[in-house]
C-alpha cells in the first residue's frame, strides 16, 4: 500500500499565496467587471532590464548555431555568472567569497526550501514569527515538528518579531541548531542592523549552529551603513549560508534565476561531532537533484551586472521603492502604524483589527489584494502586508480606493 508522508498531514490546508489566489479568483468570478489591483504576492510587474533582454536574445541565437550550442550546463551554474557575482556582489569590505562558493539555481524559494534536507531531522530549528512560510512548511514536511496547536508547530523555537523588538528577531535563550533569518525582511520590510547580525553570528558560533540568511531583497537597501550581506560580519563564513535572487531586483520572477552562497569554511557535524563541509553536501545534493538553470537565463542574469544592467536594476528598484513610499504615506494618513517600505518593497501595516476581515474588506469593497499578516504567523495577526510591486498608476489608484473606504 502506498502510504503518505505523515508529516504532510500536519500542514495547514494550503500554501498561503495559493489560498489567497483562490479567494481572489472567486471574487473575480462573482464580479467580472471589477478591476482588481494586486498588492498581495510579491510578483514584479515591470519588464526585464533592456541589458538582460539583449543578453537573453544573444544567448538564444547562440543556441541556434552548432558552433555555439550548449547542452547540459554545470549543476552549480556557469563560471561566467558565478565569477561576476563573487566580484560585483561580494568583492567589497569583508564580504569576500570565491566563485566556487556560489550555486546558481532557479529560485530562492527552492533553495530556502531544499537546504534543510542536508540536516538531521532531530535538530532544533529557530524560525521568526511572522515569517516567509516556506522556511516553516519545509521543516514540517521533513518531520522536524510536532502537530500545529494554538497557532504554533510543536518543537519549533519561534523568534517573535513585534513592535517591542523593532520587528528584529532576538537570539533565543536556549540552544538551537538551524536558524532562519531574512533581511530585508519578508513580510515586515525591516532590515537587520550590524549589531543584531553580530549577535546572531556569535550565537551560531557558540552553539555550532548554522544560519540560513535570506537576502533576496538586498538590492532595495538604500543605506550604506546597513549590512548588505551576512558575510560582512566577522566569522559569518563559518556559520552562514546566504540566499540571493534576481527575481525582485531584475524582474526575474517569471524568468527564474537565483543563487546561494555556501562558504567552504562552513561546517556541519556528524553524530561523532566530526565536521563535514556544508558546501560539499550542497554540491552533492544539487548534482543529484538539479540540472542547472538554462544558458540564456544565466547570460541574461550576468547582464544585470554590466554597467548598463546595474543602472537599469537601480532604476527598477527605485521605481518600486517610490511605490513603497506612496503606500507608506497613504496608509499613515489613513491613521495606521506602518513599518518597512524604506529599504524593502513590503510595507507592514497594523490594522488594529482582524487581518483576514480587513483583507476581505479591501478585496470586496476596493478590489485591492493584500496579504493578511496571520498567514505569516501568530505575530502577524492584526497586520496586513502590502507589496509595492505594481505599476505606479495602480498603486496610486489602490491607495485612493483604500482612503475612500
Ligand atoms: C512573497 O510574496 O512573499 C514572495 O513573492 C514569495 C516568493 O518570493 O516566493
Protein architecture, described:
The protein is globular and about 60 Å long. The strands form five sheets. It has a seven-stranded mixed beta sheet, with helices on both faces. With 405 residues, it is α/β, with parallel strands linked by helices. Helix 4 packs across helix 5. It has two domains: 139 residues, Aspartate Aminotransferase, domain 1; 255 residues, Aspartate Aminotransferase, domain 2, CATH 3.40.640.10. Helix content is 37%, strand content 16%. It is built from twelve helices and 17 strands. The site of D-malate (MLT) has 6 residues, from loops.
Shape: globular
Number of separate domains: 2
CA-CA gap between termini: 55 Å
Helix content: 25-40%
Question: Unreliable runs, pLDDT <50, ≥5 residues?
Answer: none
Overall residue-averaged pLDDT value: 97
Sum up the structure in keywords.
405 residues, alpha/beta, Aspartate Aminotransferase, domain 1, Aspartate Aminotransferase, domain 2, seven-stranded mixed β-sheet, four-stranded antiparallel β-sheet, 17 strands, binds D-malate
Amino acid at each position: 500500500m502506498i502510504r503518505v508522508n505523515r508529516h504532510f498531514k500536519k500542514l495547514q490546508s494550503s500554501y498561503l499565496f495559493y489560498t489567497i489566489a483562490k479567494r481572489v479568483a472567486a471574487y473575480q468570478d462573482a464580479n467580472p467587471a471589477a478591476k482588481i489591483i494586486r498588492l498581495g504576492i510579491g510578483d514584479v510587474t515591470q519588464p526585464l532590464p533592456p541589458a538582460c533582454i539583449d543578453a537573453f536574445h544573444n544567448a538564444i541565437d547562440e543556441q541556434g548555431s552548432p558552433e555555439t550550442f550548449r547542452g547540459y550546463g554545470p549543476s552549480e551554474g556557469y563560471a561566467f555568472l558565478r565569477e561576476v557575482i563573487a566580484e560585483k556582489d561580494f568583492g567589497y569590505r569583508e564580504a569576500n567569497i570565491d566563485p566556487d562558493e556560489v550555486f546558481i539555481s532557479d529560485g530562492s524559494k527552492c533553495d530556502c526550501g531544499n537546504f534543510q534536507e542536508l540536516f538531521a531531522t532531530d535538530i532544533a530549528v529557530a524560525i521568526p514569527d511572522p515569517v516567509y512560510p516556506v522556511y516553516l512548511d519545509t521543516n514540517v514536511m521533513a518531520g522536524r515538528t510536532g502537530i500545529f496547536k494554538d497557532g504554533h508547530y510543536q518543537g519549533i523555537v519561534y523568534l517573535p518579531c513585534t513592535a517591542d523588538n523593532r520587528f528584529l528577531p532576538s537570539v533565543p535563550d536556549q540552544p538551537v541548531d538551524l536558524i532562519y533569518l531574512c533581511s530585508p525582511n519578508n513580510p515586515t520590510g525591516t532590515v537587520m542592523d550590524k549589531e543584531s547580525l553580530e549577535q546572531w553570528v556569535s550565537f551560531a558560533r557558540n552553539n555550532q549552529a548554522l544560519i540560513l540568511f535570506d537576502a533576496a531583497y538586498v538590492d532595495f537597501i538604500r543605506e550604506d551603513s546597513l549590512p548588505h550581506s551576512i558575510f560582512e560580519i566577522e566569522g559569518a563564513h563559518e556559520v552562514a549560508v546566504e540566499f540571493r535572487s534576481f527575481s525582485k531586483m531584475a524582474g526575474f520572477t517569471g524568468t527564474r534565476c537565483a543563487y546561494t552562497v555556501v562558504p567552504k569554511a562552513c561546517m556541519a557535524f556528524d553524530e561523532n561531532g566530526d565536521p563535514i563541509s556544508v558546501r560539499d553536501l550542497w554540491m552533492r545534493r544539487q548534482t543529484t537533484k538539479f540540472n542547472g538553470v538554462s544558458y540564456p537565463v544565466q547570460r541574461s542574469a550576468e547582464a544585470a551586472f554590466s554597467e548598463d544592467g546595474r543602472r537599469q536594476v537601480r532604476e527598477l528598484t527605485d521605481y518600486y521603492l517610490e511605490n513603497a513610499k506612496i503606500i507608506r504615506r497613504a496608509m499613515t494618513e489613513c491613521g495606521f502604524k506602518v513599518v518597512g517600505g524604506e529599504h524593502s518593497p513590503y510595507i507592514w501595516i497594523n490594522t488594529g483589527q482582524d487581518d483576514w476581515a480587513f483583507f476581505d474588506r479591501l478585496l470586496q469593497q476596493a478590489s485591492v489584494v493584500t496579504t493578511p499578516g496571520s498567514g505569516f504567523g501568530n505575530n502577524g495577526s492584526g497586520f496586513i502586508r502590502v507589496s509595492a510591486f505594481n505599476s505606479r498608476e495602480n498603486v496610486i489608484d489602490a491607495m485612493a480606493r483604500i482612503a475612500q473606504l
